[in-house]
Amino acid sequence: MQDNILKELKLSTNNSVSINVPILARVEGEGALELQIRNQQIESLQLKIYEPPRLFEKFLEGRNYSEVLDFVARICGICPVAYQMSATQAIEQCFGITINPWVRELRRLFYCGEWLESHSMHIHFLALPDFLGFNSAPEMAKDYPEQVRRGLRLQSFGNSLIKLLGGRSVHPVGACVSGFYKAPELTQVESLLNIAEQRLADCRDLLTWLASLSLPDNSHDFLCVSLYHPTEYPFNEGHIVADNGFNITSDQFENYFKEFQVPYSNALHCTLQNQTYLVGPLARVNNCFGHLPVEIHLLLQQLGFNFPSKNMYHSIIARAIEIYYCVLEAIRILKKYKQPKNSFMEVTPQAGIGYGCTEAPRGLLWHRYEIDENGIIKSARIVPPTSQNQARIEQDLHISLTKLGLNKNEDELRHYSEMIIRNYDPCISCSTHFLNLTVNRS
Amino acid sequence: MEKMRIAVHKFTSCDGCQLAFLNAGEDLLTLSELVDIQHFAEAGKINLEEKVDIAFVEGSVSTPEEIERIKRIRNNSRFIITIGACATAGGIQALRNFAQYPDWLAAIYATPQTIQSLNTSTAISHHVKVDWELWGCPVNTKQVLDAIRSLLFHATPRIKNDSVCLECKRKNNVCVLVAKKQPCMGPVTQTGCGALCPTLNRACYACYGPQENTNTTSLGNWFEYLGFNKEKIAQQFLHINNQAPAFKNAGQYFKGIKIVNQ
Fold first, then answer.
1. N or C: lower Cβ tally within 10 Å for chain B?
2. What is the ipTM, given to two decimal places?
3. Total-model pTM
4. 8 Å CB contact of A263 and B114
């Protein structure tokens, strides 16, 4: 499959043209796109995810609840914090544990670190080379040294926040059910607060710079799904809402969201009442715009950006907005940090079912665990953001490619498709990862 | 002089070990001056068939396609260095090797026949010769850059494999096994992480794999003495590096499975 590297054009016997891009670069995981065009119309369009399945849900069975956070972190190297947060929330719900305000705030801080690291990496390593015409970030760094270094600083600050609470930024080890194994020292917090304040100018400069790029417009209507909290921008808490008025609690998820298998993908598709929908930064900014701080509203007004937006190319702006938000939120939490008496509580297992739903960098991440009275996992179900976005990506490609014009040459179609897919920042190792585009036309 | 050529490949994994490069910050920019990165899909460079000096491999072999791909990579590479628990020992997903995998697939997928995957998840060394192994779940930037720096000097990479215990002593940590009676895997686990877990007051869970000359039975007996049952002790070994021989055997032993001729 990967023998024929890049642009291979071949004419098959039935007079159809096929193009092959055996590897989609700059996405996280392994995937492919197959496109059939007949009489200037898309006959079929399949986003294929062939990332090999690892079946975490099965090997969690029979393990103790205290091991779950170390296990689920391994689902994704880019967003382990998200997996740990949704899992711990579900376990705590099952055991009837209410976390204390100190833990609640520090979990937000932990999440700020992950959004910063993930968003900054996506903007600078995965998305921007597209817009500026480079193959990779190191290449881009030769022409845009200050911009790339600014991105690396923001990414590195995110990693430092995760390390503060988790010891390391990939598969952190600090979080436990009911809290954190150890509270950070005041001196560590002070030095990070100092760095956070220096990063504020980077956030404003990044957003201003991205706003100056001419981004394509592929606006069309779609459903935005995210958590919504009455008083704050959501990380760990809130109802699951959509911008059509849909509003449920996380334990009702299974009644409305349906997962199903398609024969060409190793990741299950998911729809909300038979509709495709978007999760992730743009959906969150659209649904929760009112909860962003005044500084961000003023800057966006100055830059002439309005939300809600249904232009998927604005997802890069949404990521930069959330980067700014995370630095502001981190400053707020770090400023009032005090060392607690206990960083976690005594946990007594209780038999039952618990649900957890939090906002991973790429969107809604829902977990459900059935646990017995000894704290042993009986069954687990995990619905990651990328599998939820799959059907929406296919629909977007349908609409956007048709708008672009299906008579365009294969190079252009391929490049445009890759950009569309990258707007969603697909994390394919999560969903069960790269793009192999085949266009067939007759 | 021609620059050293490197490649970073992904197999069945979470992508976390590639972050040793992507999270390296300024060092990544320096690295891209010192070496030619020929293939690194996530960073945007695709050149799968190119001859390279060092191929870094992340992930385990779990599909028929991966068996073929690793052979081609071996033919094109002077050195192969595995990065992380998946590539080095099969990873956490190798827990399937103890189960009836087809049943697991059928429990998740309505039509498992469309999924191309093997019944086992295995280490890269199971399929081709591996020159150096970097353990860890995940490996960190320092381990990877140390190996490249050594090879740039035409020296053999020096990989540490003393135990986490020694790192704890160097950091003046209070022993979580002795003082807190937690089932700490530090005595049988190799260092490299900087004794992260005990530093955060929790037991090590062996994500860096077995150290040299482990005495797993003795440690398991200690856990039993501390009040843990055999099933729990077996699970301690059958975790992230469940296919590393020392841990696999210890896991089987505490499960009550006797293996003769070993």
1. N
2. 0.95
3. 0.93
4. yes
